[in-house]
Specification:
Helix 1 (11-21) crosses helix 2 (23-32) and helix 3 (34-47) crosses helix 4 (64-71). The chain has helices at residues 11-21, 23-32, 34-47, 64-71, 85-94, 131-141, 157-163, 181-190, 207-216, 221-237, 239-245; strands at residues 54-58, 77-82, 98-102, 115-122, 143-153, 193-201, 248-256. A seven-stranded mixed beta sheet has the order 3-2-1-4-5-7-6, sandwiched between helices. Helices cover 45% and strands 21% of the residues. By secondary structure, it is α/β, with parallel strands linked by helices. The N and C termini lie far apart (44 Å). The chain has one domain (11-203, 248-256): Vaccinia Virus protein VP39 (Rossmann fold, 3-Layer(aba) Sandwich).
Length: 257
């Protein structure tokens, strides 16, 4: 059963613990959410007629998103980088053809040789106590033309009300940053990146995935039905309002200024 993140544990170390204790379950959960995240990347590439030779994903975890990109032939070559040895070993074993690199992007000694057409940072910043430091390190460690960055929007009106009932930093997902579109894009712009396109969407979980994640997280029956309501039914019924008031994902395509 997945545990809520402890206040004493860094966001990235929370994932280290998950990969050490629940690797297969976490990999399956990430795989189930990879398609929509890859949709953001594919749409940006298609709309802007970008044909990358090399795609690099930072904070790739077990490689769910980059493996989906590889399946869609979005680039000629692929590299995934992650802090966790367990995650990188999983990627290396399960996704042939993707170069898997273990490393800490914020380490001043870390470098990715050569140039990359596109870098992907998908659902990473919300796990980091210092996301601005990560973005600065990315620009130091890599030469790239474009970067796609995606985060969940969890500081919307209804989410703030929900947060008054429980410390939201103690969550199973290990999130420590909670964004609105404005605060996320301000972070991006202040890091020296220029936003050239954006996509906001509401992820809708199918019922089989809700059953899977409820079992994974050890939810009581009433919380299973609450998750079904808030992750399957209501997002479909109230899509425009849901996106503005409760929860969404927001992706941006950027270049360096």
């Amino acid at each position: 059963m997945s545990l809520d993140k402890s206040q004493a544990v860094l966001g990235k170390d929370h994932f280290l613990q998950l990969y050490q204790t629940e690797l297969e379950q976490e990999a399956e959960w990430l795989r189930r959410g990879a398609a929509e995240k890859a949709n953001s990347i594919e749409q940006f590439l298609r709309i802007h007629e970008i044909h990358p030779l090399r795609l690099v994903e930072l904070g790739c975890g077990v490689g769910a998103v980059i493996t989906e990109c590889q399946r869609r032939n979005l680039a000629a070559t692929y590299m995934g980088v992650d802090y966790s040895h367990e995650a990188i070993d999983y990627l290396r074993t399960n996704s042939p053809g993707i170069e898997a690199v273990q490393g800490d992007i914020t380490d001043p000694q870390f470098r990715v040789d050569g140039s990359s057409d596109i870098v992907v940072v998908s659902h990473v910043l919300e796990h980091l106590e210092e996301p601005a430091r990560f973005l600065a390190s990315m620009q130091r460690a890599l030469k790239f033309s474009y970067v796609v960055i995606e985060v969940p929007l969890e500081d919307l009106m209804a989410s703030r009300v929900k947060a008054t009932m429980k410390d939201r930093k103690g969550n199973v997902a290990g999130h420590v940053q909670f964004f609105t579109t404005a605060t996320f894009e301000a972070l991006i712009e202040s890091s020296g990146l220029r936003i050239v396109d954006r996509r906001t969407y509401v992820p809708v979980l199918d019922m089989d995935t809700i059953r899977f994640v409820s079992q994974k997280d050890g939810l009581a029956p009433y919380r299973y039905w609450l998750k079904a309501l808030t992750n399957h039914y209501l997002p479909q019924w109230l899509m425009p309002w849901w996106k503005r008031l409760y929860y969404a994902h927001h992706a941006v395509l950027c270049t360096v200024r």
